[in-house]
């Protein structure tokens, strides 16, 4: 007789997958919104200058076509599988919001020629960068490979320019600067998190009250 085996869901997956699922649902809903509403949500340089600041975040949730949507949902799933253990449902949503905001500000001031932008690819680059650094801090060998791969990819894009075939597939220009800015924001956020963790370890105990007698 064969012994019945039971698959147990990893604890980290149980903690993080609802957040990833909600993000995916929001992105799919954004994709089926009426065109008029989508136009009010895309990252648009001139509109943001005119104080429509919500576009700094909402533009990253929209996509140019179905292929673009599917590719980025696959990328989000990859982030969950590789680094979901580093997040809870609330923190992944917070990270997405913070990285989207940071990327948009860099696009706004350092790439003003990009008038319209949609897509999650910049945020995905940031999340993969953060995850790779966390892997390296945990002495995971794949962290260094992923980090170097991201650096090579973004460097190649800046040298060679956007991929014409990919642009045709997603029916939009590939915003390689968003990928670069995603890496920059990912590095800055990872540095900030490392500093917070360091100061917590170094000085946190000094502020703890001694146990009562």
UniProtKB/TrEMBL annotation:
Coiled coil: none annotated. The keyword Transmembrane helix applies. InterPro entries: Peptidase_S54_rhomboid_dom, Rhom-like_SP_proteobac, Rhomboid-like_sf. Gene3D superfamilies: Rhomboid-like (1.20.1540.10). It comes from the Bacteria. The chain crosses the membrane at residues 12-33, 91-108, 114-133, 180-199. It comes from Rheinheimera salexigens. NCBIfam families: rhom_GG_sort. It is a multi-pass membrane protein. This is Rhombosortase. It is found in: Membrane. Signal peptide: none annotated.
